[in-house]
Design a protein that fits this description.
- The protein is mainly β.
- It has one domain (4-74).
- It contains 1 helix and 5 strands; from the N terminus they run βββαββ.
- The protein has one helix at 41-47; strands spanning 4-11, 17-21, 27-29, 54-57, 72-74.
- It has a 5-stranded mixed sheet.
- The longest helix has 7 residues, at 41-47.
- The chain is globular.
Length: 78
């Protein structure tokens, strides 16, 4: 499967960090590592690694499918 590069997008209403694919409209996030709303990008990127992410769907704040995503790469620099 092709590598998907994701960038931090924000914290959703369930305090989950959400990442969006840079070349599409797909969202990924963590259901295990939670943050306060408005947490900084730097703090999130310090704590979240690719293996923490699962597929969330095609819109922000959606229900996760729980599918592991071994082909994910987090964009860490601006």
């Amino acid at each position: 499967m092709k590598e998907v590069i994701v960038d931090f997008h924000g914290i959703d209403s369930w305090n989950r960090p959400v990442f969006k694919s840079v070349n599409g409209n797909y969202f990924y996030g963590s259901t295990d590592i939670l943050f306060e709303y408005g947490e900084s990008r730097e703090k999130v990127l310090q704590e979240v690694v690719e293996s923490n992410l699962v597929y969330f769907g095609t819109k922000f704040d959606c229900e996760p499918s729980g599918s592991a995503c071994p082909f994910i790469k987090i964009k860490r620099e601006e």
